[in-house]
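Hello again, I could really use a second opinion on something today. I've been puzzling over a protein and I'd love to understand its fold better. I'm sending you its amino acid sequence along with the backbone structure tokens. It would help a lot if you went through both lines with me. I've dropped the whole record in just underneath, so have a look.
***
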Amino acid sequence: MKKTLEFKAHDGEIEDIALGPDNKVVTAGRDFQCCVWQQDQLVTGLRWHENLPGIPDKAYRYQACRDSGTFLGLGTVTGSVAIHIAFSLQRLYYVKEAHGIVVTDVAFVPESRPGRELLGGHEAALLSVAVDSRCKLHLLPTRRSLPVWLLLLLCAGLIVATILLLQLAFPGFL
């Protein structure tokens, strides 16, 4: 093995590291941060005081991380579990103290046939393991969205309504 890249990712030890799609790397460090890297460039990061206001920075620390390509699963030293969108780090799911103590690892259920059976109608499933000797399954509900055809239909209706309103306001418009 040859070292191809070296850079300072965190102040202090790195608790966990995960490889993501598009050569991205996710790191969880003892400096209370979780970071997404592209080569040696910081893409985005999470800090407790920015994402969970009212919770003291020193009370929580990211302990475990996994990146499914779409989602980033995180576990903390206080037993909390979270799922974020991988590219923006927007939080979609959070359970405070899902475990009694340190989450030592998290893993997404693979999208194989047995994995899809566990998912049911959910968008993702994350397993968390902790020092409390428990393994828990966290299911991310499917987010609601409009079908593209309905969105296009609404846009067309908005354009027609705008033209009709302009015609009423200015009779010689068309």
Summary: The chain has two domains: 14-140, 145-173. The first strand starts at residue 14 and ends at 19.
